[in-house]
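User: Design a sequence. Structure:
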């Protein structure tokens, strides 16, 4: 098997007496969608934050693209190619779709507060923004106000903003949240193709999406990974059914 792009080893994190992450080890390989599921409060977002850099683990390590990033800032990890979409939208609603994509590309270049107007004439930034919009299928919407996009299109725009950095992998925390059935279907189709550009560690509540997309699924319960496997293995795992799917009769 190829080397993992992301490798989490023995991550532990306590909040007071609560072990939100308890010795978590997982990998993300090129080309795969690895879903992370578990009940509310299991510690999914806490784990994603430690991988992305917003939160420091008490112990354990995170390696990304061959480098130890455990003590690097979020910005440094992003520059190394760790792409991320957020549970809360970070888009500027009054700006156009293209402006948001350009701002994303600019932010990754590290000079976000400089001269907005000239930036919209910066050919390299514009090309990178337009390319990202094409990749998510939003090129015909570039002049739309972001507020006028559907919920699903905004999610796609968030991915486009992340794509301007040419990420080597994605972390996504509940990208389907708030989408209707049609929006979810479209996003599922989109993520399905995205995995070949950049593998995805996907936290998602929507089990239809998880079972449709994931090459592997890890189940987190009370801060611990209780099982990792493909969809069939996870469906059949008695511990998972008991702990997570809420079945009494799993034997
Ligand atoms: P999930 O994303 O799986 O729903 P979280 O990672 O958000 O779960 O939370 C895991 C547990 O850690 C919960 O019990 C939550 O209340 C607790 N928790 C998360 N962040 C903090 C924090 N900053 N301080 C104290 N407790 C926290
Ligand atoms: Mg969460």
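Assistant: Done.
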């Amino acid at each position: 098997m190829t080397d993992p792009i992301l490798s989490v080893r023995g991550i532990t994190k306590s909040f007071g007496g609560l072990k939100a992450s308890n010795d978590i080890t997982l990998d993300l390989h090129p080309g795969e969608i690895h879903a992370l599921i578990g009940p509310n409060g299991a510690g999914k977002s806490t784990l994603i934050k430690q991988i992305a850099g917003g939160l420091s683990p008490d112990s354990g390590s995170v390696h990304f693209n061959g480098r130890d990033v455990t003590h690097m800032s979020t910005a440094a990890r992003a520059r190394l190619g760790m792409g991320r979409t957020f549970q809360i939208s970070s888009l500027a609603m009054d700006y156009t779709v293209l402006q948001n994509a350009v701002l994303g590309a600019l932010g990754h270049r590290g000079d976000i507060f400089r001269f907005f107007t000239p930036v919209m004439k910066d050919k390299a930034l514009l090309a990178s923004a337009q390319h990202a919009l094409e990749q998510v299928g939003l090129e015909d919407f570039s002049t739309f106000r972001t507020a006028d996009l559907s919920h699903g299109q905004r999610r796609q725009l968030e991915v486009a903003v992340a794509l301007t950095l040419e990420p080597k992998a994605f972390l996504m925390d509940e990208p389907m949240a708030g989408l209707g059935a049609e929006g979810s279907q479209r996003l599922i189709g989109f993520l399905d193709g995205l995995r070949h550009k950049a593998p995805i560690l996907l936290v998602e509540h929507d089990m239809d999406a998880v079972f449709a997309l994931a090459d592997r699924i890890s189940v987190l319960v009370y801060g611990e990974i209780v099982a990792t496997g493909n969809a069939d293995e996870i469906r059949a795992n008695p511990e998972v059914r008991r702990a997570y799917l809420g079945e009494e009769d799993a034997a």
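Residues 15, 18, 20, 38, 40-46 surround adenosine-5'-diphosphate (ligand 1) (CB under 6 Å). The chain has two domains: 1-81+167-251, 92-166.
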